[in-house]
Amino acid sequence: DFVVSAGCKPFQSKQLRDLLYKKHTKSFDEMMYIPKHLRQDLKDTFHIAGCLDLKKELVSRDGTIKHAYGIAGGSIIETVLMRYKDGRNTACISSQAGCAMNCSFCATGQSGFTRNLTHEEIFEQAYNMADFCQSEGQRLSNVVFMGMGEPLNNYKNVTKAAHMMNTHLGIGAQHITISTVGNVPKIKKLATEKLRTTLAISLHTPYEDERAKIMPISTKYPICELVHAAVNYAENTNRRVTFEYCLIHGQNDSQKHAYKLARVLGPMKGLSHVNLIPLNPTPTFEGKASTEESVRVFQEILMTAGAIPSTVRVKRGVDIDAGCGQLADSLLKDIAKVKRRSGNKSAINEMIGSESSFAEDEGSEQTSEEKKKTHGDDSDIIQSFGTGKHTSDNIIAKGVNVIHAPSGKHAKSNPRFWAKPGALEAGDASVQQRTALL
């Protein structure tokens, strides 16, 4: 421990961590609780810096905030903050750049996979939103892993980041939700973790053949195995499992689907909850959102036929393309606009401020190290059946989107982590490897 080796007491190491992570102190000179000689040693040896480069901030009419960050390698990831009138603040964070799951109704899934995020990159997304909340006299109350990527395909970094959020940001395990499209082995592994987070499973239809068409992972892990893993998770963690269900008009919103879903989740009676999410449109999927009447009937059947509690979520952040599955939609639209204006690939460089185009980055060969790593919207509750309170803290904000210069009140790169001087030079792709957290 650097603090102890500098001749200070072990408790001062904790003081230092609290100043960095809880007080969000951005300069060693501001750390008045720390002995002067230690502050000087820290200044001589380290500087506080972050892995993420804020490219743009967007603020919705409903208060939703979306940040687009540049990361090492030139990719863009996004983070969303949902702010509620009751004081809750929920951050939706990304675990990967892009997504390999190829879900047909999700623009992110159609955009392709680039790489896993490091635990530093994941943690810093939550840290930045916690910093914003603190600047507003509030606190970050919830974190959901529902941004870009499949969290359980980046298991080690996701769970490490979740532990850091719990330890350094003071977010309780029950207020950290890890989402998955259905990686059964990793769900079983997650059930053994000491940090018992909330689990959310993207289901979207109770029929195996239908699910395989819209979610290819279902061909590997059938629904019956997924439900069995969910039962195991609930029993081992004493946490109710949430099932995400995106309602698509004429495809999965019939009464037959509702009755079937109630039967499928029968083994999880008292252990599960369903989030009903009317579909947001994307250019790669022709489906439409279910009607309000269809949603109402679907929800009633879940309760009457299976005593399955559920919530319906109102769209939020749609005016800034922060809806579920829409974020990559905005990216594609922006790229198309600039391409039409310039007629060549340099248009993309103009947008992302990178020497290599998005297309080149997306299709480039991976290094051996990268191969080792590879394998939005939230809402207020408008109806809640079988629950006595608002139960949904989930934000789904999938995709990559913003690629312009920073703007807005909080458009800045927030310094966060400890790194040796010179480690954070522009374009240095090895920042993560040279970053040392206290």
UniProtKB/TrEMBL annotation:
Which GO terms fall under molecular function for this chain's record?
Answer: 4 iron, 4 sulfur cluster binding; metal ion binding; RNA methyltransferase activity
Give the matching Pfam families.
Radical_SAM, RlmN_N
Localization in the cell: Cytoplasm
SUPFAM superfamilies tied to this protein: Radical SAM enzymes
Q: Where is this region: Disordered?
A: 347-388
One Gene Ontology BP term is: tRNA methylation
* Keywords (A to Z) from UniProt: 4Fe-4S, Cytoplasm, Iron, Iron-sulfur, Metal-binding, Methyltransferase, rRNA processing, S-adenosyl-L-methionine, Transferase, tRNA processing
Cell cycle as a keyword of this entry, yes or no, is: no
User: Which branch of life, at top level?
Assistant: Eukaryota
Q: Does the keyword Iron apply?
A: yes
Output this protein's name.
Cfr family radical SAM enzyme
Native source species:
Sphaeroforma arctica JP610
